[in-house]
Design goal:
The chain has 6 helices and 12 strands. By secondary structure, it is of the alpha/beta class. It has a single domain (6-43, 80-267), classed as 4-Layer Sandwich (Purple Acid Phosphatase, chain A, domain 2). The strands form 2 sheets. Strands 3-2-1-10-11-12 form a 6-stranded mixed sheet, with no helix packed on it. Helix 5 packs parallel to helix 6.
């Protein structure tokens, strides 16, 4: 399969080569009054050998707990590194957050469906409504064997239709559903389904530790958050913030775990 040169395309859209924040974006339109604020972070790889996985998780939680007025957090896959024994341990870490949190399954989250639901109290395909007008869809893109999967189209279609009258819908999928990254997979049906709903404001991915920018498909934004753990990727562990204003304006920006520096941002 012919793959387009993703790194060349992302050079104008990510932060890994940027010297100053917003150099490719212009001024972000921060809301004057924020109604919804959430954070997403991915690829903690709790339990990966020869990494300081406990330290990276501690630093991320400290950074998140310093953020003001956060409504919820999504850990977007690769919560652990293969070994099932780490899943209940990482839950104990997440439970130290001061705000609600949710999880998606990544290819290194190699537990059975039953164990996943037992630990997290919900299936790996799950949705919720925040503050009566914001839909949140958490879609699995892997399984116990760690295979790269397209999202269950039936599940996604049902949830998008259920949320079609909401003002905003946000979708979280660990593995990119297009092969525009080195580790994405081609899922044309899923891309077209997302594009067919006007109120889907953004889709968030993890998995690609060295990608933290934005790509567009039929004007729909797809965003990455780099990583905060694991043994490879961008040299700056990071997380992504999203804010929705009272007027409906939506922005997102990437921050470093270390000191909260804003690396890039987008109006959505």
């Amino acid at each position: 399969m012919h793959r387009r040169p993703f790194l060349q395309k992302i050079s104008l859209l990510g932060s890994s080569i940027m010297i100053l924040p917003f150099i490719s974006y212009g001024k972000m339109d921060f809301p004057k009054a924020t109604r919804l604020k959430f954070i997403t972070a991915s690829d903690g790889h709790f339990g990966q050998p020869e990494t300081d996985f406990e330290g990276s998780h501690r630093q991320l939680l400290e950074a998140i707990n310093k953020e003001e007025n956060v409504d919820f957090v999504v850990f977007n896959g690769d919560l652990i590194h293969d070994e099932p024994k780490w899943m209940p341990e990482v839950k104990k870490v997440y439970d130290a957050l001061k705000v609600p949190y949710y999880t998606t399954r990544g290819n290194h989250d190699r537990v059975s469906d039953a164990v996943w639901e037992q630990i997290w109290g919900r299936p790996d395909n799950f949705s919720l409504v925040s503050k009566e007008q914001y839909g949140v869809i958490l879609a699995s893109s892997s399984n116990e064997e760690g295979k790269y999967l397209c999202v269950d189209a039936g599940f996604l279609n049902t949830e998008l239709e259920k949320f079609k009258d909401l003002s905003h819908v946000f979708l979280f999928v660990h593995i990119s559903q297009n092969d525009w990254t080195r580790h994405g997979i081609p899922c044309q049906e899923i891309l077209d389904l997302i594009a067919s709903y006007p109120n889907v404001k953004a889709t968030f991915h993890g998995h690609d530790h060295d990608v933290d920018g934005i790509m567009l498909y039929k004007k729909k934004p797809f965003l990455w958050s780099g990583h905060f753990g694991g043994s490879w990727g961008n040299p700056f562990p990071s997380y992504r913030v999203v804010e929705v204003g009272e007027d409906g304006k939506t922005i997102t920006y990437l921050k470093t775990v270390k000191d909260g520096t804003i690396l890039n941002g987008n109006n959505l």
